[in-house]
Amino acid sequence: MQSWGLTDPGCVRPQNQDTFQMEALDRHTMLCVVCDGMGGAKSGNIASTLALDVFVQEMKRNYHSGLDMGAVDQVLERAVKLSNFTVFDQARQIPEFSGMGTTLVAALIKGRHATVVNVGDSRCYRISAEGIAQVTTDHSLVQLMLDRGELTAEQARSFPGKNYITRAIGTETMVQCDVHHLDLERGDCLLLCSDGLTNMLEDQEILFEIVHGVSKKHCCKRLLDIAKSRGAPDNVTSILVQV
Description:
The chain has 243 residues and is an alpha+beta fold. It contains seven helices and eleven strands. A hairpin with a 2-residue loop joins strand 5 (104-110) and strand 6 (113-119).
């Protein structure tokens, strides 16, 4: 298993409020996390950093290789809940942090199996011989309107309220995450990324760069370069894992 990650403030924002981490939990297990903070210049980076740190530390404390699939789900869900409580508590106690929150997408990859959790609109994709498939579903106003047939996919890309998310870490006392299970084939890739990337590139463009690029090692940089060539108004973060 190999992994690479990269984050960049983009072309417009002076501060990077995205965070990411790749952590080997044991010889056969990798944890990858991307968070995209919100709440303005004073607190978005606080929310994403705090959520990431709490989530990773909680996983390191409670994960071990003998856990079955159900127990892994519970450990991941508890880590999400603790991250949410910690960010929410900080926002409640410190006035300048009021309203802060963050997305979170994480993949726990053990051998050929991956468990993915997400809150918000940061995404996980699977890239395989069949092409590219979005694993996660955005928790966003646009996704709700797509589900109801009120927008087409093309309209959704330029919808004025596309950045409004319906779930986030730290904005409510409780949060619900989605959990996804994937059986992977040798050579498959997982891409975790913030919306600063997916707002700039179509899925098929992402697929092309991962499959046909010169090397996987430099793929995150190539994706970033494309996003920045198109203006990259938001922070851009990606993690690529190949099993």
